[in-house]
What does this fold into?
Amino acid sequence: MLVGGVVGWLVSAVGTAVSKRSADAVLGTTEERALRDALSDSVAAILNQVPEGARGDLGAALRERVTVPSLGEVSGDGPSEIFANVIDELIAPLALPGQTLANHHIDPEWLSQSLLDALITAIRRAAVISGILADLAQLIGIERLEIAQQRLERLILAERDDRRHVINTLPRALRRFADRIEVLDRLRAVAGADPGVAVAVVVIQGMAGIGKTALAVHAAHLLAHDLPDARLFIDLHGFTSGIPPDPPENALASLLIALGVPPDRVPPTLDQRVALWRSRLSGKRAIIVLDNALNAAQVEPLIPGTPGCVVLVTSRHTMASLDGAELVTLGVLPEEAAAELLGDVPGESATSEPLISLRIARLCGCLPLAVRLAAGRIRQRPQLHLENLAEELADTRRRLTSLREGSRDIEAAFELSYQALEPAPRATFRRLGLNPGPDITVETAASLADVTSAEAERQLEELLTQSLVQEAAPGRFVLHDLIRDYADERAVTEDGEEECEASRQRLLTMLTGKAMDVDRELSQAAQNNEPAGAIWAKRWLESERTNIVAAARLAEQRTDLSAVRLARSLGDHLMNLGFMDDTEFVFQAAARVGDALGDIEAHALGLLGCGKVQRLTARYPAARENLTHAHALSAEIGDQAMAADALYHLGEIERATGDFAMAKSQYEKCQRICAATGDRRSEANALGGLGDVAVVLGDLGAAREYYRNANALSVAANDRGGQAFALLALGELERAAGDFATARVYYEAGRTLCLDSGDRRAQANAAYGLGEVASATLDSEAALRYFADAYAISSELGNRRGQAYALLGTGDTERATGENGAAMKHLTTAHAICQEIGDRPGQARALVGLGDIAEHDGEIAKAAVFWREARDLLNSAGLTQRAIEVSQRLSRRE
It folds into this structure.
C-alpha cells in the first residue's frame, strides 16, 4: 500500500504527521492526472529529437503506453526501492522491443536515458501541486543516478525474458547524433549479409573530426540487439596526442580481459593471443568497435576468425589493404544536419536562430567536431551568443583557435595527422593551403611545392591516404576549409612569408602560361573551323574556371599583371562558353589592376570586357558606362581594334533599348574603323547590326544588302560564326517579309553552323527564329518546343533579353491557340523583364498581346490601356509604323 510505502516512509523521513486518511486525500486522482499529463508532455519532447520518419510509429507506440498506475499500490522499503518501483510502474510500459528501435535507427540506450529524464521532469512538474510528490522529487536528486544504473538495463536495454549478463564496454551514445541514415543503412546491410559465412568488417574512414567514432558507437548500439554475446570497444590510439599507437598484442590483452580472461592467464605472444581471442569468439555473435586505428597491420590480428561477429573500424588512414573489409568514407554533414548539432546550446537553439545556426555550420565546414566545439564555446561562455560566435568564426585568422573546448581542440586533431607525414608530403601539404582556388590538380600542387608532377602526384596520394585531402573528381583534390586554414597557418609559421609569396607567384606563372596555351588552341580552332581540335582546351577551361577566378582575385590583391594576362587570354572564351559571372570578375580584376598601375591598355581591356558581359546580360546602363569609358581610353592610346569593339557593343545597346538612330551611328563608326584596318570579322558584325536596324525600321532592301555583305566578309575570313550570324539575320529578314519557307531554310543553315561551333547564344537565336516561323505557319506544337529551347539556353547563359523574347513568342503562340491563361502569365513575365532591362519594343509587344487578351475577354477599357501604353513606347523608340498598327486597334474600339 502507498501508506506503508511512499507516504509512510516519507512521513517518517521528513517528520511530518500525516494520517492514512489525509494521505489518501493528498495523493488522489489530481496528482495522478497531473503526473500523466506531465509525462505525456515529456514524451512528446523526446519524439521531437528522433528522426522525422520514425516519429509517427514511435509516437503512436509511446502514447499508447503512457499510463500512471494507482499510486496507492506502490510500496517499498527505503527511498531506493520506492523510487525503483515508481520507475518500474511508470517507465516499464514505455519499453519498446529492441528490433523496433533498430528499424528506426534509434539507440535504445539514448531512449532509455531520455525516458528516465522524462519521468523525473514529470514528477518535478507534478510536484508543484503536491507536497508529497515534492518530497519525492527532492529525493530524486540524491538517488537517481544509482537507481537509473540499476533499473534501465532491465527495463529497456535488455529483453524482458533475458536476464543473462552481456559483456558491454561500448561508450554511451551521443544525445544528439548527426543524421547519417544512408550510411547507417549501408552498415546494417553489411552486418546482416551472410552472417554465417564470414566476419563482417567495415572500415569507417575520413578526416579528423568527421564523426567516425560517433557513427561507429551509434551503429554498434543499433546492431547490438542482433549481436547479444558481447559488445566491445577499444581505442587503438592510432592518432592520440601524447599516446603511442597500441600494438596489436596490447590491444588483444585488453580485449581478452574484457571477455573475462584473468590477466595472469593472457598468453605472452601475439600469435597465442590471436588464437585465444578467436577461440573465445568462435560461435559467438558480437559487435566489436576498433576505434582510432593507425593502419591495417594494427587491425588485422584483431579480426575474429569465424563468422557471426561484426567489426567496425575507424581510422583517418585509408585501409584498402584490409582484405574483405567494406570501406565507408565519411564526408561532411549537410548544412541543416550540422546546424542541428548546436541544438543543446543553453538558452538558444538551431530552431530559434536557424539562419545564424546555418552560418555557424558553414563556417565550421559542416565538420561535426568543429560544430560541437562551437557549441561548447557557448556553454563555456553563456554571454557569447550565436551571432557573436558566427562573427568570431568568420575571421579566418581566429577560427581555429576559437574551435576549442577544454582538452578538445580542432587544431590539435589536425596536428596528429600532419605529424604522421614524412617531411616531403608535409611540406607539400603546407603549400596546398596557399592555393586560392577551391580545388587542386597535380599541376597546381607541383607549382606550389616546386616539385615535379610525378613527385606531386605521389605526395597527393599520401595526403589522400591520411585523409588530409579528398579526391572530389578524378585528378582533382580538395582540402576541407578548416584543414586549409591549418595548412596555411603551418606554411606561414614554418616556411615564412617570403617562401609563401614565391609559391603563390609560381602558381600564377603556371596558370597564365596555361591560359595562353588554351587561348592559342581555341583561337586556332575557331580560325580553322576545327572545333574538335579545341576539345581539351574547352574542358580545361570549364574545369579550371573557378580556380582562374580565384587566381585573378589573388593577382588583384597583389596588384599583379597576371590578372590582365588571364583576362586577355581567357576572358572572351569564358564569355563564349556562357560563364558570365566568372568572366565579369576576371575582367573587373584586370580593370582594377590596370587602373592601379596606370596601364591604360589594361584598364581599357578590363572595362571593355565588363561592358560586353553587362550588355549580354541586359544590364544596359552599367554596360553603356563601361563601354563608353573603354572607347575613350582606347582612342587615347590609338587602339583601333578595341575602339571598334566598344562601338559595336554600344550599337547593340542602343538597338536593344530602341534608340535606332544612335545604334546606326555606332555601327557605322565601327564599320569604318574595321574596313580601314582590314578586320573583316568585326566589319561583318557591324554590317549585321546595321541590317538589324534596317529591318526594325522597315527598310528590308537595305537590310538584305547589309546581311549579304556581312556573309561575304565572313566567308572571306573563313569565319563560320560570322556566317551563322549572317544566315540567322537573313532568316529574320525573310520572316519579316512573310517568306516563312525561305526564313526556315536560313534558320536551319545557321543553326547547323552554330551547333558545330558550340555557340550557345547563336543556338538560342536560331531556336527563337524557328519558333517564330512555326508559330506564323500555325504549327503551335513545334513553336512551343523551339521557344522552350531558346528560353532554356538563354537562362543557362544569363541572357535576360533572350529569355524575354522566348516568353513573348510562347505567349503569342498560346494566345493564338486560345490558351489565354498561360499566355497572360508568359506575356506578363516577359513585360517585366523588358521593363527591367529597358527594352521598349519588347515591352510594347507584350502589352499588345495583353491588350488582345483583354479584348477577347470583353474588357475593352483594360485593353485600351494596354494598347495606348504600347503605342507610346513604340513612338518613343521611333517605330512609327508599328505604333500606327497599334493605333488602329484603338480606333477600332473607340
Summary: The beta strands are 167-168, 200-205, 230-235, 286-293, 310-315, 326-329, 404-405, 408-409, 470-473, 476-478. The two ends are 97 Å apart (CA to CA).
